[in-house]
Write a structure and sequence with these properties.
Strand content: 35-45%
Helix content: 10-25%
Oligomer: single chain
Largest sheet: 4 strands, antiparallel
Order of helices and strands: HEEEEEEEEEEEE
Number of strands: 12
Distance between the termini: 11 Å
Length: 128
């Protein structure tokens, strides 16, 4: 049986993530080999949240790529580089399982150095 959290706990957990990102957090778009492809700057605060479901503020956010490969995953990081949340899925709209959206939606999965990478986050939803 899966663990189920109350809305109060989900809300507190999401707010802790938002607070840990600080005033200059980033979304790191990464390759399967853990190379950073793009570091997308976030607003301050980076997300709003309701019952633990986080929605990125001021989307979309655009940056030029610093690496080249296929985007495979994403992380939320504090400006110091500390990982606040990992294991996020990344892809184009509707490219998740069953046509769902990934956690981080970008304009193209194949990335080259200098390419404009546009990121939006529909929602990051707690699993339970």
């Amino acid at each position: 049986m899966p663990i189920v959290y109350s809305n109060a706990v989900k809300t507190a957990r999401a707010q802790a993530v938002i607070d840990a990102l600080g005033p200059a957090g980033v979304i790191a778009i990464m390759s399967a080999a853990n190379a950073d492809l793009a570091l997308v700057p976030l607003s301050n605060p980076a997300f709003t949240q309701v019952n633990g479901t986080m929605t990125m503020k001021d989307a979309p956010r655009t940056v030029n790529a610093i690496g080249a490969a296929n985007a495979a995953k994403a992380e939320l990081r504090h400006s110091s580089g500390t990982v606040v949340m990992s294991g996020l899925t990344v892809g184009t709209a509707g490219s998740g399982p069953g046509g769902s959206n990934p956690d981080v939606i970008i304009n193209a999965v194949s990335i080259t150095v200098g390419q404009s990478v546009q990121a939006t986050v529909g929602t990051i939803t707690p699993t339970s």
